[in-house]
Write a structure and sequence with these properties.
By secondary structure, the protein is an alpha/beta fold. The protein is built from ten helices and ten strands. The chain is 44% helix and 15% strand. The structure holds 4'-deoxy-4'-aminopyridoxal-5'-phosphate.
Amino acid sequence: MTLEKLAEQKTDAHRSRNQVSRSGNSSRAASSENINSRILEIENHIHDKHILGQIGNTPLLQIRKLFKLNDSVEIYAKAEWFNPGGSVKDRAALSMILEAVRSGKLTGDRTIIDATSGNTGIAYAMIGSALGYKVTLALPSNASQERKNALLAYGAEIIYTDPLSGTDGAQQKVRELVANNPEKYYYPDQYNNPANWKAHYDTTAVEIWEQTGHRVTHFVAGLGTTGTFVGTSRRLKELNPGIVCVAFQPDSPLHGLEGLKHLATSIVPGIYDPTIADFQIAISTEEAYEMVNRLAREEGMFVGISAGAAMAASLKVASQLKSGVVVTVFPDGGARYGVEHLR
Ligand code: PMP
């Protein structure tokens, strides 16, 4: 979380406190006071010595050896495994939880529930633990053991769903549970929650802009919930409408790019905006594996499979350019996956 963002939130809290004191409705004011004191409590938690204060502001690493076209084209990656929960999803999860507390939807007695292929779940579990909320997650039973272990370590409850139905099946299960017991749960619904993409609009994009000294020309990201691509691209295009935004997806419905969606055969997330991408690229699982291995052996970066796909997509973009600054996102690290794809 950037200092700028924290300051913004504090101003928001201050504003809504003022609104409460002007309100004539005492019971609404009382519940708003509760919300405001909870927000203040959380904000006091999120400072530089708190685990949640470490979310965001990840390093921007230059790819130096995998790409040797010419000196006028540079490739950089946001190293999102530096987040405390180990992935890019810490940003979206924190944003959705803070928004829910602020709007009064997440009260202390509710359990946070969602469907996730793993990283968002780990982020909810970490943030839930740090802020004192219970967390329940539905995930396809074939999610990696390493991810299940992390969820269990943070104390989350896991509900396993059919691996053949993927994250769509897990979402379905969550909807059923919430419909049967709406008072028990708070369902952030990351596929349809604007606070997901706003996290990247407020943080990831601004960091990229600053870390490249405003030189970024191309942004490349994969589509899962689509929050990273949509939020980062929206803000970058506002900062400089000339920035070209390239989305990539798995090249087939049955793929090994965990965390990414083949949109043509999946439920399209509500937050997805098909007008943002200037180009779309399809990446095969094999290409991604190849890049995971090369990044580990040649760059000293042990990354996850979707990061390998991001590298493959960025190379395709960079190889078309005479000059430019290509920035991508490496969503997580390699330790979270099995070893089948490693040479
Ligand atoms: N890669 C991995 C490993 C992920 O967990 C996710 C999140 N589903 C993504 C990529 C895609 O990010 P987003 O949900 O923001 O589209």
